[in-house]
Amino acid sequence: MDEAAVVRWYGEHRRDLPWRRPGFPAWGTLVSEFMLQQTQVARVVPVLEAWLERWPTPADLASAPPSEVLRAWGRLGYPRRALALHRCARAIAEHHGNRVPEDVDDLLALPGIGDYTARAVAVFAYGHRHPVVDTNVRRVIARAELGRPDQGAPNARRDLPAMTALLPEDLADAAAFNAGMMELGALVCTARSPRCDECPLRDTCAWRLAGSPAGEGGVRRQPRFAGSDRQRRGLVMAELRGSDVPVTDAELAAVLPDRVVRARVLTGLAADGLAVATPAGWTLPTA
């Protein structure tokens, strides 16, 4: 792979995003990574900016009640991420002097942080040389290096060494290459409609040279959101976020009329720590 071509392309085509600007804090980088999991960039940016204005350090967030954290998370989706970020902030404030750690092992020990997020913070916030591998990166490697149409299931034992082997030695170039591979997969080497003529790797891409063969199973489709329990959970969470007093079962019945479905959704939210049953009704967690 022509790593230098990816770095040059990234320098010319990268999107202007808050976490890529000089001086952006490590705490902001960590928050952005939590928010970007399974959520579009355009939806994250305004919430992130408001979040950091309200809670500019981990200790600020750690001192907030979970109910306010969930309200600020709003409609980003997958609100368990908000509670995980809240626990992460508490751990940073209590065990790391209110400073986001830069060592990968220290980051991995924090609540809610896995291989990708730990390395992303170490690289993009602190400039260390590590492989940062997400779905987009895996797709670019699968196509450009291996000649495969898609990346298959995640496998850290395979994916991390594959990216490590491609990283430039220079720290700045390594960080730019990590970001460039992610950006390339997000904007050009997409799952459904790759724009190969715009790709900096078009002349050496093994998949393109092989005639861009289709995958055996095609592109996997996302489960339907409409009518799903995920949508129902969102409806209930919207009711709880919008109320300063407990929401009664009768009020929730206006949102989810089916009693069995309503009970299932509320049980699931309670098990995830997102909703609390009280004698007066349902509320967001307060502690």
Task: Record keyword descriptors for this entry.
mainly alpha; Endonuclease III, domain 1; Arc Repressor Mutant, subunit A; two-stranded antiparallel ribbon
Written account of the structure:
This protein has about 290 residues and is mainly alpha-helical. Among the domains are: about 100 residues, Hypothetical protein, domain 2 (Endonuclease III, domain 1); about 55 residues, Arc Repressor Mutant, subunit A (Orthogonal Bundle). About 55% of the residues lie in helices and about 0% in strands. The chain contains 15 helices and two strands. A two-stranded antiparallel ribbon has the order 1-2. A hairpin with a 2-residue loop joins strand 1 and strand 2. The longest helix has 17 residues. The radius of gyration is 21 Å and the shape is globular. The model has no long low-confidence stretch (mean pLDDT about 95).
